[in-house]
Amino acid sequence: MANTHYLSGEAKSEAGTAAIEKYHEYNYFNSYVTPFIQEQKKAPTFNRITKIPANEDGATRSIIYYNMWNSPIQQIVPCPGQPAFTNFSFYANEDENLTSTESPNVNPSDFLHTAPIQKYYSYDSENHQNASWLFIDGSQGHDIQNLAPNEASHDRLTKIEAVYTNLSGAWFRVTNTYLYLTDQDGTATRVSSVRKRLNGFASGVKSEMTAIDVHSNTVITTTYVDRPNKKITQSTTSPSSTLAATNILINGLLQSQSTFSVAAPTLFSYDSLRRQIAVATPAGGTTVPKCTENPCANINMSPSFRFGAISEA
After folding, report:
1. Of 199, 200, 201, 220, which is closest to residue 209 (Cα–Cα)?
2. pLDDT digit string (tens) for 28-70?
3. N or C end of the chain, less CB within 10 A?
4. The domain boundary residue, chosen from 68, 90, 112
């Protein structure tokens, strides 16, 4: 990856093998007098423009405009022979939380076929997202602060409720997800629940997450920490299997990995520079990366290595 920067330290370009090149430009402009930029509450502002290089026909692939908080406010994707596809992003609460998006080039979603595709987001007092909805005929307004959803509408609404609960003397933070299955009906249906343990851990346990689906199936993910041996074990149990899916890491490197369907683990090996040198599968096959020497010209340093072909042992 090769990156360049302006004298101010801002990124100028990004390029690398098998990566799309990106170029960054920085301009002052007043969004109220620039017709192709959506109006933002704090203007004029310092905006960043990101341009992805041209296709073979010479047309720019994409242009993204950012506000002074480095949050995207508009993306333009040129379409040869067609009007450019545009996405807008809004931040009604004057912070970094995305409150709504709009795609005016997509077929309208409301009953009168007049409003462009609009999606809205709201947040709770802990700054966690607690609702998202696709506008049909309910709550709408890009500039309305703390806009709340309308449950008794045709909007495609998902609500998220976070509560703290005590179970058997231990505290948990529970996040419940609700859908509204009937149009113009404010009755919510819980479709999933995620329970995070906050205290009362067993010996060696660092975290415990329990996910419960709409059919009350429970998936439990437990993380164990063995500090003296610098070892982390993550185990996931599911009603779909009598086996646990387990990952074991030592010094931050994945050592073994098992699944719900195969008890024998996949084993990973590394050299002294923490580079992966072998992967042994439960079936008995071993994948070995072949390293090829790549001397560095005009640089007083040891030769570097890169991964080349993959061989099966």
Report:
1. 220
2. 544 443 434 444 443 334 466 777 776 656 666 778 887 777 7
3. N
4. 90
